[in-house]
Amino acid sequence: MSDSSAQPAGQRAGTGKGALKRTALLDAAEEILLADGYAELSMRAVAAAAGVRLGHLQYYFPTRADLVGAVLGRVLNRSLDRLQPLLAAESAARATDPAQVVRTILAEQEDPRLVRLFTDLWALAAHDETVAEAVRGFYRDYQDQVGAFLHQCRPDLTEQVCRSRAAVFTMLMEGAALFRSGIAAHRTTTTDAELLTLAATLFSAPPS
């Protein structure tokens, strides 16, 4: 028999009503992050948004760091879940169309709130090693999936080259989020076309 109080912070009551309550609290915290940014995310604000007492929130997430870590993990996992079907090894048809993969990833950048959330997370990671490790873990998984997809498209490439191209692809996509979202610049049809061509080339042809 397990004792929920002995579970790690943010992991309590993982089934039944506890899981539903935990999800509701994470939903409230994520909404504040999306709408107002990290600066406005306080434990009291989340408790108020979820309609619970502060002590109730602290039972599931004792500190703001626990809460932010749980939200971060959920957001990053959701992003990976959206990416995985596109890059799945069994999806041979999609493996022949790298441009579609690029278009799908770029389409996610049309949501300004999601882009703002990720920029907040990047900024937070620069000052918080726990968040930084979660972000690095996310990008390791992301690049692993991209690298496997690259190997499908170009089985002649070595594993090292696939890893390197996956890293470059990730850099292009994440940099594009800043420059297409209006944060650093505004996207244009011309730059989008160039970005699509350049990114898809990583999957299809060796650089000239």
- Main β-sheet, in a few words? none
CATH homologous superfamily caption of the largest domain: Tetracycline Repressor, domain 2
Beta content: under 5%
The pLDDT mean sits at: 83
Which CATH-level-2 architecture of the largest domain? Orthogonal Bundle
User: Helices and strands: which structural class?
Assistant: mainly alpha
* Rg (CA only): 20 Å
| Shape estimate | elongated
Proportion in helices: over 70%
Tally of distinct domains: 2
Overview of this protein structure:
- This protein is mainly α and 208 residues long.
- It folds into two domains: 9-62, Orthogonal Bundle (Arc Repressor Mutant, subunit A), CATH 1.10.10; 64-208, Orthogonal Bundle (Tetracycline Repressor, domain 2).
- It has helices at residues 16-36, 43-50, 54-60, 64-87, 92-95, 98-108, 112-125, 129-153, 159-180, 189-204.
- It is elongated, with a radius of gyration of 20 Å.
- Residues 1-13 have low confidence and may be disordered.
Overview features:
10 helices; Tetracycline Repressor, domain 2; Arc Repressor Mutant, subunit A; elongated; mainly alpha; 208 residues; disordered N terminus
Describe what is shown at a glance:
This protein is mainly α and 208 residues long.
Topology:
Blueprint: H1 16-36, H2 43-50, H3 54-60, H4 64-87, H5 92-95, H6 98-108, H7 112-125, H8 129-153, H9 159-180, H10 189-204
Helix pairs in contact: 1-2, 1-4, 2-3, 4-8, 6-10, 7-8, 8-9, 9-10
